[in-house]
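Weekly structure sync, notes
Attendees: PL (lead), two postdocs, one rotation student
Agenda item 3: pending single-chain targets
PL asked that the sequence for the first pending target be pasted directly into the notes so everyone works from the same version. It is reproduced below exactly as submitted, 182 residues in total.
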Amino acid sequence: MATYKETELVRKLKKGDKSSFEELLNLYGNRLIKTCYLILNSRVEAEDAVQETFIRVFKSIHNFNEESSLYTWIYTIALNICRDMLKRRKYVSSFEEYMLDQGESAEEIVLERINREILRERLSSLPFIYKEVLVLFYFEGLTVKEISHILREKEGTIKSKLSRGRKMLKNALVKGGDLFEG
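Predicted structure, written out during the meeting:
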């Protein structure tokens, strides 16, 4: 359900108000980068996906029927772009380095990087149908109902994918990467 602020933003976007486009970028840009990065495992591709997402949003905002929230509509576009990019991908992208936080000891930084790298590696090795649901649920904080709407699948299917994805990820982390062992 759209908030008043979101409804006003959509109204301004449809009128072509330039400041509303900037507001939209500020509102969803970083979150989209994070989501696309977790799915694509490439900062460059994530940035390309987000850029393409906003281009499509700006071109087709007049077609937005407001049956879903603006957030849901934008994320649906972004996920479809990520799917297309994964289909076209002909190479395995390498992982990027994390930015260092100030004030951490070298040991903390190394351990945190190792843990993040392992989690990201295991997450990226999951089949896409589980990875996208886990990313949307845990990293984006979407509800099962919102994910169901974005992916156009029944809530029971989303719950099942979450459960299977969790088990596969847990198994991969516990057993050192074999996703398909019992």
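Discussion points:
- Residues 18-40 form the longest helix (23 residues).
- Residues 4-89 form a domain with the Rna Polymerase Sigma Factor; Chain: A fold (CATH 1.10.1740.10).
Action: rotation student to compare against the earlier draft before next sync.
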